[in-house]
Sequence to fold (234 residues):
Amino acid sequence: MKRILVVLVMLLWSCNTSADVNKVKEFETVKNFISKAKVEVAEVKDIGSLYEVVVSQGKSKNIIYVTKDGKYLILGNLLDKDVNNVTRERAMEINKIDFQTIPFSDAIEIKKGKGEKKLVMVTDVNCPYCKKAYEWLKTKDNYTLYIFFMPLSDVSYQKTVKVLCAKDILSELNLAKEGKEPTANKCDAGEARLKKNIEFAQSIGVSGTPLFIKQDGRRIEGFAQQNLEEYLGK
Fold:
């Protein structure tokens, strides 16, 4: 009997969700937003006073809210009674990455202390906040950092290839992060490795750097020092 009840509840939830999706898609406000923003409705959730609508654009997912009568869209963050950012937490959840599927063999690995906390960093060698984050991480201990490159300009691309061609990659990376030109020459192996890095970054919808991924699969966008402190410890 218990199993039957569980199945019935799941079926009812599924039907309600499907009905909500179809209903919300028919709202004129939603139709216009989808058309202009060039996104797709991936999920709809009834959260009481509003509909939470997950919209996707490629690999990236975002959240908007719609009033129950369909007249208004709300773009922004919802806070609960304890002033917790409900939208941000939910966005982190829907954009989680399966940490086990990350191609770590293509990354540069840096181990500090026992290396217990695992952290992925997607970076551009010329990005100012990437440089700040990289220097800040040097002051932390007990983590393993996996660096993937996502060059956002041709200059960054050329520098990164040289870094990946070096015998001492970390030394060359430090030079690049300091704004200096790497001393290594370009090579096919470096180009191939960078191509894999870019493919990984694109597969998870990276649009800006730095991007961090914690071991639970949650992302940290930009150099959010407080979030990184909470994860790595002070």
Remarks:
- Residues 162 and 186 are 5 Å apart (CA to CA).
- Residues 99-232 form a domain with the Glutaredoxin fold (CATH 3.40.30.10).
- The longest strand covers residues 50-57.
